[in-house]
């Protein structure tokens, strides 16, 4: 599903999340919401719906201003087992600072070639954020 640059806003993000949560796209593998300004509200709604899309391998949320709150919600969803098949995650240009720590579940675990969690994440883009160590 490619909705790149459609001006969805937080309302559109929530509407899409409701549709996903209702089970309308259980076979969805690719979700591109780049440059839609869904904000933290839309990202939180989307995070809550990710369990309904177990086959997702690609999520692009570049340029959506999800901030720490949205990133933390996504991290909690991934930590809870959502999107176990995720290979590509783009969270660039989202105003994320300390919220990126919530993504640690994508990498933590014993080393077995896929970090012990069954995940196979190959691409994580956090560029153009305000992350500080």
Automatic annotation (TrEMBL):
Highest taxon in the source lineage: Eukaryota
Keyword Repeat in record: yes
GO biological process terms on file: nucleocytoplasmic transport
Keyword Repeat: yes
Swiss-Prot/TrEMBL keywords: GTPase activation, Leucine-rich repeat, Repeat
One Pfam family linked to the record: LRR_6
InterPro entries on file: Leu-rich_rpt, LRR_dom_sf, RanGap
GO-annotated cellular components: cytosol; nucleus; perinuclear region of cytoplasm
GO molecular function: GTPase activator activity; small GTPase binding
Protein name: Uncharacterized protein
